[in-house]
Amino acid sequence: MKITSREVLADSQGVSIVKLVIQSPAIAAKAKAGQFVVLMVKEEGERIPLTIVEADPGKGTVTLIVQEAGLTTKLLAGAKAGDSLYSIVGPLGHPTVIKNYGKAILVGGGVGIAEIYPVAKALKGAGNHVTVIIGSRAKGLLILERELKAAADDCIVMTDDGSYGRKGFVTEALKELLERSKYGLVYAVGPIPMMKAVSGVTRPFGVFTLASLNALMVDGTGMCGCCRVSVGGKVKFSCVDGPEFDAGQVDWQELSSRNSIYNEKEKHICRLRNAG
Question: pTM here?
Answer without folding.
Answer: 0.91
